[in-house]
Design goal:
heterodimer; A: alpha/beta; three-stranded parallel beta sheet; 2 helices; about 30% helix; flat; B: alpha/beta; Rossmann fold; 2 domains; four-stranded parallel beta sheet; 8 helices; about 20% strand; elongated
Chain lengths: ~70, ~230
């Protein structure tokens, strides 16, 4: 694997906790790589297996569900 | 309901062979409620097939469809116009659905993605148990509502065998002894004397021993032959 490999990470974040935490991280000017993309969901329990599989099909290298 | 289980992905890939364009067809009835072949499982399997075939270097085009009931012409007929686009249909219905597709659309090969397992019920979330063998001659009325054909490992008709220990079957301690359950029900209703009547050997001609079965209801048929 090339040393320049930067994995594309998708994060499904619950509006009420993890997304709020990401918001706070922004307000605190904390940095995270631009290859991390956040999708806000009303509840992490809303995330279906098929949505995670679709993300992988479309090329993400890793995925987190945070809530 | 009919309970099924999805086949391993390896087996499904082998069945599909060199197919380039595949339609994964789910069923919205029994296999949906046992989480084996409904719309959700169709989506997951189709995605897995797309990724797996891509990784193996021969990407398949995989489309998805789910009909309300794959075992009735009325529900599968609307699929007809689009079927010629596909090399193969992978059905996630029970064996009846798979055969209905092959019978109705003989020009397209429909393959099974599930193993149809038994007639049963969800005992608790995520656990299904067999309850009926469709033997064609129901004896639940004699056995206090517990079927020894489906639930006794030896299908005994006149009480438990010597392998019944502490209420469980010798075949597997996870199997409650059906005859123990029947006895407890008889005691509950104060009718143990009913179990003294010896049941003769079962007439298996009404089950599979008589070959494939068929019911004809003349009162329901649309056309009558004289």
């Amino acid at each position: 694997m090339e040393s320049s490999f930067e994995p594309k990470i998708l994060a499904f974040c619950c509006r009420h906790c993890a997304y709020a935490a990401a918001d706070l991280a922004g307000a605190m000017r904390l940095r995270y790589p631009p290859s991390i993309r956040i999708v806000e969901v009303p509840c992490s329990g809303r995330v279906e297996v098929v949505e995670m599989l679709h993300a992988f099909e479309r090329g993400v290298d890793g995925l987190m569900v945070a809530g | 309901m009919i309970v099924g289980e999805q086949k391993p992905l390896e087996e499904i890939m082998k069945l599909l062979g060199d197919a380039q364009k595949v339609l994964v067809a789910g069923c919205g009835t029994c296999v949906t409620v046992c989480f084996a072949g409904g719309e959700k499982e169709v989506g997951i399997l189709a995605s897995a097939l797309r990724m797996r075939s891509k990784l193996e270097g021969h990407p398949m085009e995989v489309d998805e469809v789910t009909v309300q009931r794959q075992c009735e012409w009325e529900y599968i007929d609307p699929l007809k116009p689009r079927l010629k686009e596909y090399d193969v249909v992978l059905s996630l219905a029970c064996g009846i659905g798979v055969q209905a597709m092959n019978e109705r659309f003989p020009d397209v090969l429909t393959l099974p993605g599930l193993n149809t397992t038994f007639l049963g019920l969800p005992k608790e979330q995520g656990v299904w148990e067999e309850r009926c063998q469709a033997c064609g001659d129901c004896i639940l009325g004699l056995t206090f509502g517990i079927c020894p054909i489906a639930r006794c490992s030896k299908q005994l008709l006149n009480g438990p065998c010597g392998g019944s220990q502490n209420g469980v079957c010798e075949v597997n301690p996870d199997i409650p002894c059906a005859w123990q359950l029947i006895w407890e029900r008889a005691v509950q209703f104060g009718q143990v004397e009913r179990l003294l009547e010896i049941q003769p050997p079962k007439d298996w001609s009404k089950s599979r021993d008589g070959g494939p079965r068929k019911i004809v209801r003349e009162d329901l048929r649309l056309t009558h032959t004289e």
